[in-house]
What we know:
With about 110 residues, the chain is mainly beta. The protein has no helices and 7 strands. The protein has strands at about 5-10, 15-20, 25-30, 50-55, 60-65, 70-80, 90-95. The strands form 2 sheets. The chain has a 4-stranded antiparallel β-sheet with strand order 3-5-6-7, with no helix packed on it. It has a 3-stranded antiparallel β-sheet with strand order 1-2-4, with no helix packed on it. A hairpin with a 2-residue loop joins strand 1 (about 5-10) and strand 2. Mean pLDDT is about 90; it is low at about 100-105.
Amino acid sequence: QRFETKWxxxxxxxxxxxxxxxDIEHLALVTDITQISEITDPSAYDSSSRSRxxxxxxxxxxxxxxxxxxxxRLVEATSRSHGDESDQVRIEYxxxxxxxxxxxxxxxxx
Length: 110
């Protein structure tokens, strides 16, 4: 499955995400939970904005043009322009089923 995601720096501990890619239908910010495995319905979150500012441990749900969902959780974000040694982003991610309660945890990658 293809997910061409777009990101830009927002500062130390945060990042901007965008749904401007041709294969991303929309994105949604998840702030009420901090673990991807806790997502029960990826379509339930507000996807009305083309961009979101994401803070540490927040999750973004991306939906591509094929109707598949990807969840990314921001683990680390550093920015040289905000005093850090380097520009770096570290995420956890998992492919999600379209809409169902998880009976098993999705495979988590880092």
